[in-house]
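Following up on my earlier thread - several people asked me to post the actual chain instead of describing it. Fair enough. Here it is, all 350 residues.
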Amino acid sequence: MAGQEKLRAARVLLVGLGGLGSPSAMYLAAAGVGTLGLVEFDNVDESNLQRQVIYGTSDIGRPKIASAADRLREINPHVNLELHAEAFSVSNARALISAYDVVVDGTDNFSTRYLVNDACVMTGTPNVYGSVFRFEGQAAVFAAPGGPCYRCLHPEPPPPGLIPSCAEAGVLGVLPGLIGVIQATEAIKLITGIGEPLIGRFVLYDALRMRMREITLKRDPECPVCGDAPTIRELAAYDLSCEPMTTDAMTVDELKAWRDSGERHFLLDVRESSEHAICEITGSTLIPMGQVGMRLDEIPKDLPVVVHCKMGGRSAQITAQLRARGYDARNLTGGILAWISQIDPSLNKY
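Reply from S.P.:
Thanks for posting it. Predicted structure:
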């Protein structure tokens, strides 16, 4: 009864209602957490349903925050939902987090992840972290008293385009469910004071080998945000989109104009063969990213080369490599997904 009363009095903020936030929110509502703050500004897309289990086919096109709220009220009509239909940003981060007891980080990009971490450290709010990539997941509790923060693990964000997002690289659909449930478990433990939370411990899960291992992560006295002499004292935004800014870019409209006018070019698809089997732009040549360096003789130097992948991240890297070798290469902004959305919706979207 005492633990249940603590849950009822608790306020938990979920930043993001995607693959991680979906199961976390449902289990926290079912557990009887009194107030759930939901931060989400996106709409439900068919491609979300493979892993974002809080939504159904009838929700496609609806705001995620409205659909999630309906589902959570079905699970627990007594839960108090505070809906923040806005992007989590520098302008609102501190005010949002300071109003809650625990934060569950369900973000899917580095810029927001660092912002969540820094705001949690500055407000003294525990940050229940989780992330997924293809077949692997991670979980930990950051910014708890005496414990490390996310920057103790990764002091600075990676360069733009180095690490693809889940949408770009793909993720096993059940994996966010498992990591999201771990996050909900850790939030419940923090609220009720039971067990041993993942403070100073970092869990890594390998779904292919069904193996979970743990590493110790201590607070870094030199950490730029939670260290003994922090150098980061104000929140800052990071521009870390999966597609680096480049002057060698081509839009899908420009590519279509080339094709309509008969402008000669070489369209290079650097996705994997499994992706190519789902959909392709007619006339493209498939050379997976990892094989480009060994198959340069198949790429003509006397024609402009338009490089594309799924969303533009991998192709940006290949474009830079080709230009360094003397090719007239351009990166197709937004990749094949942009082509499907704006030019040819008959292709299968994934």
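The first strand starts at residue 11 and ends at 15. That should answer part of your original question.
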